[in-house]
Every structure is written in C-alpha cells, then in structure tokens.
Amino acid sequence: MGALYETPPPLHDLKVTLLRSTTIHPKERKERRLMFLSNIDKVLNFEVETVDFFVANSEFPPEAVVEKLRSALEEALTQYDFLAGRLCSDQKENGRLAIDCNAAGLELIAAASELNLKEIGDLEYPNPAFGQLVPRTGRPENEEIKRGVGEQPLIAFQVTSFKCGGFAVGITNNHITFDGISFLAFLRNLAALAASLPLPSPPFTDRRLLSARSPPLVAFPHPELLPFPTTTTATATTTTTLFSSPSSHRLSFYLFRLRPAHIATLKSKAAAAAAAATSFSVVAAHLWRCKALSATSSAACKEEDEEYTLGYAVDVRGRLVPPLPSAYAGNAVVGARASAPRRELGEEGSAAFARLVGRVRGAAERVTDSYARSAVDWGELHEGAPRADVFISSWWRLGFGDVEYPWGRPLYTCPVVGPQRDVVLLFPVLGGVEKGVNVLVALPPEDADKFRSLFYDFLAEDILTN
C-alpha cells in the first residue's frame, strides 16, 4: 500500500450472476414535460460508472438494501422526475436535445458474486473487472440512439452481494443528469430517503438558468473548445464522447498514490508562486509536466516550442452573477485550459515549477461570469467538445465516500473507467482525503517508465517509505 506505482491486478472475473431487474417509477408522477438541457449538458452525453463497496451489516443484508433502495428511489423520482425520463429531440427547439420526463423509470438490478469481498484485492486500484458491478445499460449501436432518441435509461443501479455478506452498489448514469456536485447532493438525498428522513437539499431542476443569451455573445476566444466539422448529417443531438481514444487498446492503467507529505513537498517547490498554491494546482502542474515530457508517440510528442495544454473542469455555481442556486441539479462546469511550451514544461527547479502552478491557477481565475456565459453562447453557435492534450478529472474532494446511508458509509468509492490517453483521474485513497490522493494514468507501455521516473525524481524523496 505504500508504493505509488502499481501494475494491473490479476483478478479479471468477479463471478457475478444477475438475479433480477426491476423498473422503478416515481411514487407520485408529475405532469409530463420536456426538460431543457443547457449547452454544457449537451456536450456531456456519455455514461459515468461508479461503485461503492460496503462491509457486511447484520441489520442490512443485501436483500434489505435492495428493498430500501427501491423505496427510496421511488420517492426520489418524484423530485428528480428527469431521472425517470428519456433523451429526446425537442421539435419546438429545432431538434435540440432534451429529456422527456415521461416517468419511463430507471433500472434496479440485484446480483450476486461467488467471491468474498476480500478476494477482490486492492479496492483502490480501479480494476476493469469492477465493470461487472455496475449496470450495463447496453446502448445500441444504431444512429437513432446515437442521436439521443431512444429508450436508454438515464440512470441505473446494481446491488451485488458477496459471500461474506458485504456488497457493492454500482451506478451507471448519463453525465447529462449530473455533474459531480449535483450527483453528491442526489446521493445525500437518496440516503436521507432510505433512512425515512426529509431531503437535506431539494433539487433545483430548471436548467434554463444556463441557457444561451439571445443573440449569443461570444466575448472571449475559447481555445479549450473544439468545434466539430460541419457535415450534412450533423445535428444538434449528435452524441459527444469526449473521452474516446482510437488507440485505447494499447494503453494500460498505472496508479500512483500521493500522501500528504508528497503534496507538501510539491507545495514547497511552488512557494515562489505569487499566491498560495492549492493542493489541486500543485498536483495538476506535476502531472501536466510528467505527461508532456513522457510522451514519445508521434501523435503526442511535441517540439520544444509547441504548446502543450492542460484541461480541467471549474464549477461556476458561485462564479455567475447572480450565483446559481446551491441545489442546482445539472452540469454547471466550464472548462479551464492552461498552456505552456513543452520547453517550459521541461525546465527544472522550483521557480519553473511555480510558474506552471501559476498557469494552472490562472486558468481557473479566468473563468468569470462573463467567460462562462461566453462559453455557453459558444455552444449555441457550434457543435463541439472540450479539448486539451491532457485532461484532469478530479473526484478527489467530491465526498461520494462520505455519504451516510442507513447501512453505513462506503468502505470505498471509485469510478469504473476505461484507459484513455488524455484523461488523468484523481480520487481519494482508502481512509479519506486526509490520507492523500490516488492518481490514475492511462499510458502506452513505452511511456510508462519515463512517466514514473519523472514522477518520482521531481518529488526528490524516498516515496516508497512515506
């Protein structure tokens, strides 16, 4: 557990059997409506998979958890009516992607594994086999579904019991439904309903607060956004899969663990920065540098004077004027983009690192109300997606593992991911954020040793003994 660098685990089959599937409908149905989706929502039309592991609880065996979830979800869908809906084209808005809140329902699956929880191994390593613990909604590969018109559930749950009495709760949801902050609020509300308590944060579901201005006003350049080529078949409802990679079959997962002492080392190296460096900014700068300098393939390797870019999401709830409601249920994130010549990323010393940290912080500082509104308006004029040479997706401090369910807090929470060249994932270590952060990187095998060397050497300490 002390090592930062690990190879994929040997366990590939969790021996899971699906027992039954139930469609959950709202306990009280609201009037059917078409739910407006913002230009931010539309870009995020892909699935996110999360799994929570729980130890055995004699008061809540897995079957009881399934029943509690069923009842809580029925109540939750009364407030979150869009979760029981389906994607559609709004013909009154020129075929714009929307959600038909038609109470079609979500799926709740009961499953069982032949293994004990301890047999799975290291829960912190996002084993691709964890995909057996989340619902596979089976998006059909036909053009109609790709355009967002079909019977695809927007969210589904799977409770998988283990022989020891422990269990996992896997969730597959379309990112259109939530960003990280609103997903956390949903989980807290669901936990409260399962405990027969009132909602701590009733959702605000009117996403027109993030609609484009009329006429759109793109007041800033947006190099963080890449417009798609215009074709005769392109429509406003074409699915965007931001994290796809044509060479993903050549990539492997590598997990690095940064303990508090390592983060403190990075902060001390960034002490020359004008403002106090945050944990995220120093970790992001370190990973940005490692990714840029370790790239060897012709597609990823750049000349010394070429720009190498870093992208990450910034929550705009409190940056807008007026601010969005804190209970806004939807996607309220805008891409931040830092850029530096590869030569600068290769410069050594604390002063050079401090400059990179400043670039990371500056990217977020540029996301003001005016900038965010300009980005939303850009999406009204273009079909496109965020772009950067490397994206950092941070689950580090979202707090999914802190949700208190009637059957207890998760032993561990992690994403189920596929290896992609341009995404680095941050998520908590076992024991909570105060114990540090896990860094998951997908790399071509030929880049792995160079990345590891850069990662270790810059910390300039015996990482394995901390």
Tertiary shape: globular
Q: How many separate domains make up the residues?
A: 2
Low-confidence stretches: 139-148, 232-241, 243-248, 462-466
Give the number of DSSP strands: 17
CATH-derived topology of the largest domain = Chloramphenicol Acetyltransferase
CATH class of the largest domain: Alpha Beta
Spatial strand order of the main sheet = 1-6-7-8-3-15
Structural commentary:
Helix content is 25%, strand content 23%. The protein is α+β, with helices and mostly antiparallel strands and 466 residues long. The chain folds into two domains: 16-210, 2-Layer Sandwich (Chloramphenicol Acetyltransferase); 225-465, 2-Layer Sandwich (Chloramphenicol Acetyltransferase). The strands form four sheets. Strands 1-6-7-8-3-15 form a six-stranded mixed sheet, covered by helices on one side. A six-stranded mixed sheet has the order 10-17-16-14-11-12. α3 (143-146) links the parallel β6 and β7 (155-161). The longest helix has 18 residues, at 62-79. It is globular, with a radius of gyration of 22 Å. GO terms for molecular function: acyltransferase activity, transferring groups other than amino-acyl groups. It comes from Ananas comosus (Pineapple). InterPro entries: CAT-like_dom_sf, Plant_Fungal_Acyltransferase. Belongs to the plant acyltransferase family.
